[in-house]
Amino acid sequence: MPVHAFAASSMITSTKARPATGQTGWDEALLRRYDTSGPRYTSYPTALSFHNQFTPSDLTQALERSNTSKRSLSLYVHIPFCRKICFYCACNKIATKNTALAEPYLARLDREMVLTARHLDTTRPVEQLHWGGGTPTFLSLNQMGDLIDRLDARFGLSSSPNRDYAIEIDPREADVFTLRHLESLGFNRISLGVQDLNPLVQKAINRIQPRILTETLMDEAHRLGFRSLNLDLIYGLPFQTEKSFADTLRQVIELNPARLSVFNYAHMPDRFPPQRRINVDDLPGGEEKLAILRTTIEMLTAAGYVHIGMDHFARPDDSLAIAQREGSLQRNFQGYSSHAQCDLIGLGVSAISRIDDIYAQNPSDLTRYEASLDQGQLATVRGIRLSDDDLIRRDVIERLMCDMRIDLATVSQRWNIDAPRYFAPALEHLQSAEQDGLLTRSGDQLSATPIGRLLIRHIAMAFDARLPQQTGQGYSKIV
């Protein structure tokens, strides 16, 4: 990878020396103008539309309805524990060093599995499995094996080479023995949290993580044959500059992951108390963040990565890039997914399910989650059943977010509507974005331009009928 690193590094110049536009269609003034707050559209309707009149009974009915579809299953398991708090974190987590505290939680997870599986045709294959957190590798090797056994007993896990079984890993809390154990349990994809390799930034976010920890795990994962490795980075953290983040990117490119997620840090200390430990004066300003973003896109593109959309990048031979080329890419609560048309079952505190025509969410409070299951009922506390209009708009927004374009003729045919007429207000609303060069329209084809891809959330917002009622709800910035 040294050639790629050199090619990328040669592009690092002062933002002021760059032309306003280029291969990426970069226009800083335009980005600033459209850099408002908006949903990330991991679902539509978004979680802000979920309501507490949605009950566990609504979920079980949806599970039973879904059996007729014969769709494959996707399982998400939330492990909320981690040993140390990272100051930037906005996840639902419990900080503790005592792995014994996970035992009661694992028992509740099993109870949730039993209650869920009662309503499912469990001959449906589990094509996708994802453990998130927190830090799933907080669990001991025995606890991880026990959890896999429980999942297999309740749902029947897959041994298909096409399965997508992923786990999020903190390189500070795992070693080569952990990876060997995970491979033996059936995981074939891992995601490593890195965030930044600069020691000054790491100290400011309370995450000291030398490169050797990540490199050792990646080398072992490649040796074991893990199909796809993802690295998570975050830009906008304290003390980051365009130059310092370019150095992190050079090192990451040398590590050669199949996928990269480069998230925009959203500083919301009122909502996420750990962020109060970050000094706002140490955060890069808006101009510096845009420079970091531009450098990121240029360096990763020069290194051969495909910009899937928003904050995701993948090598052309990775399943994400292949799914996007084939038009089968999906967006869910874990980001982009190559396994479309699965019913997603969320297990654990705060987990969200997407089944048939509903979304259902568990409580974020651990005590409330446990109490519901101890009473012999699913822990669902809120959710929504989608109307026909919601289903149509979800389809359009998801295709925009995944394909960066939409074919209104296909929408018309799929939903038996006159899509240009149905979405006339949205199309009218997008005229200014079209004039500004965010998208092009040719007949029934709407396509995001290179700069429109960076602002795809803004384009999707035009099709969101629920957004006007959700202003001021604390969405993150688009860029």
Task: Tell me what you see in this structure.
By secondary structure, the chain is an alpha/beta fold. It has a domain at 2-9 and 50-345: pyruvate-formate lyase- activating enzyme. Helices cover 39% and strands 18% of the residues. The strands form five sheets. It has a nine-stranded mixed sheet, sandwiched between helices. The chain has a three-stranded antiparallel sheet with strand order 14-15-16, covered by helices on one side. Helix 9 links the parallel strand 7 (228-235) and strand 8. Helix 1 (2-9) packs antiparallel against helix 10, helix 4 (102-117) runs parallel beside helix 5 (141-155) and helix 5 (141-155) runs parallel beside helix 6. Its main location: cytoplasm. This is Coproporphyrinogen-III oxidase. Pathway: Porphyrin-containing compound metabolism; protoporphyrin-IX biosynthesis; protoporphyrinogen-IX from coproporphyrinogen-III (AdoMet route): step 1/1.
